[in-house]
Amino acid sequence: MKTRAKLLPGQKGTKSLQKQYGDALVCVRYRYDEINGKQLKTVEIIVSKKEWTPPGRTPPRFAEGDIVAVKIGVQEKSLQQQAKAVGGRWDPAQKVWHIPFGCIAGTELEKLIIIETKPTKVTSQSL
């Protein structure tokens, strides 16, 4: 069976089906069964809608302006330099770097975020 035409709502050949299904109509297909000599008209309709997050695409844990705690080892000088370069501040009491999340999203430093601490909003005084 071969599909010869795929029509979108509003095109010639879909108007009566569009009246019947309304906004739920996605497309109309004309298929041809060469063995039995039949033309088949099929419709694709939306039967339900719900929220969905694609796999591997989790929503961000932190907002762009959140200050996050990042644990960088004493010997990891290059990571410390990266933290400084993006405006990070060393907190000797907690022994962590406080860095705006938006500056490290998608970088190696994002993997070092300490989740247990609560993020804080960026203010001009904190950086």
Taken together, the total number of domains comes to: 2
Apparent shape? rod-shaped
The major pleated sheet works out as: 4 strands, antiparallel
What is the count of DSSP helices, taking H or I runs of 4+ residues?
3
Query: What is the H/E string?
Result: EHEEEHEEHE
Amount of beta strand: 25-35%
How many extended strands? 7
Give me the side-by-side strand order of the main sheet: 5-6-4-7
Explain what you see.
The protein is an alpha+beta fold and 127 residues long. The protein folds into two domains: 2-45; 66-121, no CATH class. The chain contains three helices and seven strands, in the order βαβββαββαβ. It has helices at 15-21, 77-85, 101-104; strands at 2-7, 25-33, 38-45, 66-70, 89-91, 96-100, 120-121. The protein has a four-stranded antiparallel sheet. Strand 2 (25-33) and strand 3 (38-45) form a beta hairpin. The protein is rod-shaped and about 80 Å long. The model has no long low-confidence stretch (mean pLDDT 85).
Outline:
By secondary structure, the chain is of the alpha+beta class. The chain has helices at residues 15-21, 77-85, 101-104; strands spanning 2-7, 25-33, 38-45, 66-70, 89-91, 96-100, 120-121.
Considering the chains and any ligands shown, give keywords for the structure.
127 residues; alpha+beta; 2 domains; three-stranded antiparallel sheet; 3 helices; 7 strands; 16% helix; 30% strand
